[in-house]
Amino acid sequence: MLRDMFKKTYTLIDTKYSNSKSKGQDPEKDKEPIIPEGLWRKCNKCGQPIYVEDVTNNHYVCPKCGGYFRIHAYRRIEMLVDEGTFEEWNQDMEFSNPLNFPGYEKKVQAAKEKTRLNEAIVTGKGRICGQPAVIGVCDARFLMSSMGHIVGEKITEAVERATDERLPVIIFAASGGARMQEGIVSLMQMAKTSAALKRHHEAGQLFISVLTDPTTGGVTASFAMLGDIIIAEPKALIGFAGPRVIEQTIGQKLPEGFQRAEFLLEHGFVDMVAERKDQKEMIGQILAMHRNENRDFSSEWLSNSNFSQQENLFGKAEPKAEKRDKKKKKTQESNTAWDTVLLSRKSDRPTAMDYINGLFDQFIEFHGDRYFKDDGAIMGGIALFHGIPVTVIGQVKGKNTKENIKRNFGMPSPEGYRKALRLMKQAETFGRPVICFVDTPGAFCGLEAEERGQGEAIARNLFEMSSLKVPILSVVIGEGGSGGALAMAVANEVWMMEHSIYSILSPEGFASILWKDSKKAPEAAKVMKITAADLYEMDLIERVIPEGEALNEDSLPQVLAYMEQALKEFFLQVKDLDGNQLAQKRYERFRRM
């Protein structure tokens, strides 16, 4: 319908343009560009003339500067929802003026006539890439999509119905905040919508919040920032107080990019910044990973797989204890403990990212701790393992100087541990197993880490992980340094790569403290019992992953094939345990140590 309208407009314009040319024009004036009314628009961001059809085909993004235009609610739904599947709810709700504010009725009536909307949000149900969801879309044309009692009621009713029907909720926020003409009644909508979302969360249902330009005020301080997953559009203005208010209050000019989507990503408040053209596919993928039928991680291979009888690329599978004893003996004969330390630190050793990409499908990375920052030393998100949705989290080192600086050499700050815990708690809500890849020389011990509570962040992870009601598996793939490693290894099982280490602190630190000589690190490594073989013999870990002589990108596929089979075995062991049993077994594991 929209395209037909544009086509008629283009035909009329082309006719007028042709007629004007046939009449002849001043040669000097002919040199100036002719911009027929309706066919071209001026970008309000870069000031360049842009062809309307180009903008429409480009998801209402300026093809010249990449600036995002605000789009109408029904247009957004048309771009997002599968054709013919949207069912609108509460299209007409009776208006009232709770404060009898002068002129409010006329203002609302004018907005209705201008937008052809009943209120500033459209809600309903539809399918996105085949996945059912409840959808709400704010429309900034209607009183800047400020949240009055009707907006609050429409959101709350939609969320309540989604909870009853066990459907995910997606809300595209765009708002100037609370509606001033409704005063305290508007303020109460913040609490009402938040309470409805809390019940939705406790019912184990998904809420995706998409922040568009602008998302400010009471909307930011309520439903918009409560998403299990929060997506922002590029360069969207997002904040509680608006930039002008802040500048007037503090008397200072704000820095470039302040309160924009990218600023919030860096500071840990959104999971991702997604371009408009990618949003439907991205949201559809997330919805597919949160289907209710995925909650019990059962699959054909879980019922049919028999790991102990399968061959792997390191030879026929042997009984677990016998195989480990042989592997431990071989390791002891070929490497000293210090050799293992050096191997665990090799710069070409595969990182957590290599294992995530090699073992799982459709990995979607989420960012931020929702408090302060996104820590590059820890990455995490959701993925599929043979169709089973899982949460995967890894401590990540870089493979060159630039990457190491970005990843802080694999040393997480408090916000990294808080991000990891946020993702684990999210996994618990949606019944996903958690798989952690441990590889850190230790938690970052800088001044700012202490200021932001490094000890508390690690302690909180130990506290919360001990009782999570989903399976947790941790794999030490390189260095497992002190509490910084343990904060991601309170698991039902802990595995170690053959040439990895797991220790109370580095051998250099151990030697310095006990013997006042860091040069005795090789001797310290031996007495500390930090190798996979040592820890398996002490019954502190459950499995040693064979590596071969030197683990690198070339030999990694063999290791991944082995780990894939081992993961299947782990899932077979835990698939019939409920949440309380999983937490109890985890408690008993550490209780015997």
Q: What structural keywords apply?
A:
593 residues, alpha/beta, eight-stranded mixed sheet, 25 helices, elongated
Overall pLDDT level: 89
Please give the share of residues in helix: 40-55%
Oligomer: single chain
> Approximately what portion of the residues adopt beta-strand conformation?
15-25%
Distance between the termini: 69 Å
Give the radius of gyration.
29 Å
Overall geometry comes to elongated
Largest sheet: 8 strands, mixed
- Computed structural class: alpha/beta
Describe the protein in words.
By secondary structure, this protein is an alpha/beta fold. Helix content is 43%, strand content 18%. Strands 3, 4, 5, 6, 7, 8, 9 and 10 form an 8-stranded mixed β-sheet that branches. Strands 13, 14, 15, 16, 17, 18, 19 and 20 form an 8-stranded mixed β-sheet that branches. It has a two-stranded antiparallel ribbon with strand order 1-2. Helix 17 (414-429) runs parallel beside helix 19 (454-465). The longest helix has 21 residues, at 2-22. The model is unreliable at 1-36, 304-324 and 326-333 (pLDDT under 50).
Give the secondary structure arrangement, pairings included.
Blueprint: H1 2-22, H2 27-30, E1 40-42, E2 49-51, H3 52-57, H4 73-80, E3 87-89, H5 104-115, E4 121-128, E5 131-138, H6 149-164, E6 169-175, H7 183-202, E7 207-216, H8 217-220, E8 229-232, E9 238-239, H9 243-250, H10 261-266, E10 272-273, H11 276-289, H12 300-304, E11 311-312, E12 315-316, H13 320-334, H14 337-344, H15 352-359, E13 361-366, E14 378-385, E15 388-395, H16 401-406, H17 414-429, E16 434-440, H18 447-451, H19 454-465, E17 472-481, H20 482-486, E18 493-497, E19 501-503, H21 507-515, H22 521-528, H23 532-537, E20 543-545, H24 556-574, H25 579-591
